[in-house]
Design goal:
Structural class: mainly alpha
Order of helices and strands: HHHHH
Radius of gyration: 19 Å
Shape: globular
């Protein structure tokens, strides 16, 4: 096994472990009174600062974005990332961790069913184009 493969497996193991531990730690914080919105704010602020520091040290060029891409990143950050984090942690604050994780992983199925039933969108097999979120990029704004 190559060094890069070992590193990849190690990163996957670390990421999965931290993700699993984070929901249990979050539930403990909710029990002692920390609101989900504050946890999301703390978590995303620390993640942003960490990413900023890593990029400053290792790859400053990746920090530069085009002005036309700012709306995309704004929506992605505030609606996408913060929204998903908040709804996930809010759910954990109200129910047990296991069902919250199940709901999170079933969300693509519910979105597809909604699109099929209410939006009359054809199923993926009937489409000639891939899903819009797989082919869409920031340059299309």
């Amino acid at each position: 096994m190559k060094k890069t493969e070992r590193s990849g497996y190690l990163y996957i193991l670390i990421g999965a472990t931290l993700w699993g531990v984070s929901s249990v730690v979050a539930k403990s914080l909710f029990i002692i009174g920390l609101p989900p919105a504050e946890l999301v704010q703390i978590r995303l602020t620390l993640a942003t600062l960490t990413l900023l520091l890593v990029l400053l040290i290792f790859d400053k060029k990746r920090m530069i974005i085009s002005l036309k891409d700012v709306p995309y990143f704004f929506v992605l950050g505030f609606v996408g990332v913060a929204g998903v984090q908040f709804t996930y942690y809010y759910t954990i604050s109200k129910i047990h961790v296991g069902p919250a994780v199940l709901i999170q992983y079933l969300s693509p199925v519910w979105v597809a069913l909604y699109a099929f039933v209410f939006q009359k969108e054809p199923s993926q097999r009937e489409k000639s184009q891939p899903c819009f979120w797989l082919s869409w990029d920031a340059t299309s704004l």
